[in-house]
Amino acid sequence: MNIFMGPRGTRPARLTRTLCGVASGWLLTAMVQAAPPAQTPPELPAETLTVTSLAQAPTSRVYVADIAISHIADGRIRVFEATQGRFLGMVSTGFAGNFTLSAKSDELYVATTYYSRGTRGERTDVLEVHDTVHLAPTYEVILPPRHAQALNYRGLVRVTGSGRFVLVQNATPATSITVVDLSARQVVNEVPTPGCWGTLPAASGHRFSMLCGDGKVATVTLNDQGQVTDRQVSAKLFDADTDAWFHHAEQVGDRYWFVSFLGQLTELDLGGPVARVVRQQSLVNAADRKGGWRPGGYQNFAVDPSGHWLVAGMHPKGAEGSHKSPAAQLWVFDLHSGQRVAKYAGKGTASLTFSRNGERLQALDGMTGAMNVWRWQGRGKLTPLTSVAKAGEAALHLESHD
Questions:
Q1: Residues of the chain whose pLDDT is less than 50?
Q2: Which of 122, 174, 225, 308 sits a CA distance of 20 to 30 A from 61?
Q3: Which of 393, 361, 372 is nearest to 151 (CA)?
Q4: 300 torsion bin: left (phi>0), alpha (psi -120 to 50), beta (else)
Q5: Torsion angle of alpha carbons 269, 275, 281, 283, nearest 10°?
Q6: Strand 371-376 vs strand 382-388: parallel, antiparallel, or unpaired?
Q7: Domain coordinates of the chain in residue numbers?
Q8: How far apart are CA 196 and CA 192, in angstroms?
Q9: CA-closest candidate to residue 260, choices 301, 199, 218
Q10: Cα–Cα–Cα angle for 370, 303, 401, rounded to 5 degrees
Q11: Is the dihedral of CA 378, 382, 383, 386 positive or negative?
Q12: E strand or H helix that includes residue 153
């Protein structure tokens, strides 16, 4: 047997390692034998599941629709307290569901699709009615299986000014509007709307308008049974080839505002049987055009409840196809004078809305999914209130409770 010998006066290396191993093993055994027996932890108290409501929660709430595009059969609406960003609850919206609120914010309507095998199988379209105190479904109405499976936009589900009917956009790809009678809790009509898209309800009655691809605005009037009694079309108001309008619109009463891809602002009166132009102005001046400044995003501008102030998400170096770009800046306009009164950092904003009481401006960051909230103090002054780092995965539509 050959044993490696170290320098004179040292022990063989293998023997040294052996003795150390024996000593370590003895020490570990002694420590284990000396350790006190393990103590059994006390039994944890049983958890009790409870159900609560938002009856005592602040009314300063915002509803954020998330189409959850990476797992689109599992969409949801997240509800936040708007001044502090506290998460309050969630409503499922199924496959590409779109939503709207009642005039009193006491009911939430979701038009959506479910498949019997999750992402395949038999299709069922449904209008779900939730109360906003418990965020729970109260009833549902089965829809024709033609509900538009589209990204979240305000105009795809709306309530008529009378509060009687819910209007649901269809696409097969032929376009039509399903009319749901909330009193009867049933579908009462399907209105063909070839070449037109979305619903823009008048402030009262059963009338609604639509943007059409030929640059006109069609207006439909329903009777108390939900049947069409009148349909008229405006003159051509825009050219979709040279300067299309964003579909998103802002409403105060019968006044509606639209913004074009190049920054032209148009105000319409949609209270009558035919859409009427009230006034137009440009959001960009000559210097802005040289910098290529244009509006961009989805719910890309907001008008306060008084109809006095407008905030728009703007980006520079705009070009064909940049109309969905998030904001590099937020521009504030006085609609009475037509003047821009302030600029703010854009924070990647893709969607904007004022609270119904006009006290806050709320926005979604199209890059990160964050929600940013400012205190609106009038005359173009915005003061940061709170921010939620991740309000959704693919959140593009938000509405205010108050």
A1: 1-32
A2: 308
A3: 393
A4: alpha
A5: 90
A6: antiparallel
A7: 61-400
A8: 9
A9: 301
A10: 60
A11: positive
A12: none
pTM: 0.87
pLDDT tens-digit readout, 233-260: 999 999 999 999 999 999 999 999 999 9
Answer for the pair 294, 253: CB distance below 8 angstroms, yes or no. no
Q: Which amino acid is at 212?
A: C
Omega into 192 within 30° of 0, i.e. cis? Answer: no
Contacts of 222 by beta carbon, 8 Å cutoff, 6+ apart: 160, 165, 179, 189, 206, 207, 208, 228, 229
Question: Which pair of structure tokens corresponds to residue 319?
Answer: 């070009």
Max Cα-Cα span within the chain: 114
In angstroms, the CA 266 to CA 280 distance is: 4
Q: Under the phi-then-psi rule, with left for phi > 0, alpha for psi from -120 to 50, and beta for the rest, what region is 68? A: left
- pLDDT 10s digits, 322-344: 999 999 999 999 999 999 999 99
| pLDDT at residue 259, rounded to an integer | 98
What are the tokens at 398?
A: 């938000």
Q: Give the whole-angstrom CA distance, residue 237 versus residue 240.
A: 10
* Token digits of residue 108: 């939430």
CATH topology of domain 61-400: Methylamine Dehydrogenase; Chain H (2.130.10)
The answer to whether 310 and 303 are in contact (CB under 8 A) is yes
The pLDDT score that the predictor gives to residue 49 is 82
- DSSP letters, 322-367, are -TTPPPSEEEEEETTTTEEEEEEE-TTEEEEEE-TTSSEEEEEETT
